[in-house]
């Protein structure tokens, strides 16, 4: 799942090289720098690629603090 998250982040930011430089500790908001439109696109692509429905009522800012924390949150969504 982490590789899928990294791949989608690279697609949304339009930086194919980024997938190789992202780690599980990469801060999605501060390190990647997604704007609001990119964040919505990222979330929609996550739902599509992972075949899940994200519960946005339970999605917390802390879940976006790293690729690993987002992965943990999404694992519970399945």
Structure explained in plain terms:
The structure is a single chain. The chain is an all-alpha fold. It is built from 4 helices and no strands. The protein has a single domain, classed as ACP-like (Non-ribosomal Peptide Synthetase Peptidyl Carrier Protein, Chain A, Orthogonal Bundle). Helix 1 (2-13) runs antiparallel to helix 3 (36-50). It is globular and about 30 Å long. The mean pLDDT is 88.
Write the layout of secondary structure elements.
Elements: H1 2-13, H2 18-21, H3 36-50, H4 67-77
Helix pairs in contact: 1-3
| First-to-last CA distance | 12 Å
Q: Can you give the mean pLDDT? A: 88
How many helices in DSSP terms? 4
CATH topology: the name is Non-ribosomal Peptide Synthetase Peptidyl Carrier Protein, Chain A
CATH C-level label? Mainly Alpha
Taken in chain order, the helices and strands follow as HHHH
Number of strands: 0
Structure class = mainly alpha
Q: What is the percent of helical residues? A: 40-55%
- Estimated share of beta-strand residues: under 5%
Roughly how many Å is the radius of gyration?
Answer: 11 Å
Q: Provide the CATH superfamily.
A: ACP-like
Outline the low-pLDDT stretches.
Answer: none
**What is the second-level CATH architecture?**
Orthogonal Bundle
Largest sheet: none
Q: Rough shape?
A: globular
Overall tally of domains: 1
């Amino acid at each position: 799942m982490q590789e899928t998250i990294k791949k989608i982040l690279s697609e949304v930011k339009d930086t194919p090289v980024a997938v190789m430089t992202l780690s599980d500790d990469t801060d999605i908001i501060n390190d990647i720098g997604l704007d609001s439109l990119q964040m919505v696109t990222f979330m929609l692509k996550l739902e599509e690629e992972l075949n899940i429905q994200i519960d946005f009522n339970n999605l917390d800012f802390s879940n976006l603090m790293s690729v690993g924390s987002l992965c943990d949150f999404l694992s519970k969504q399945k």
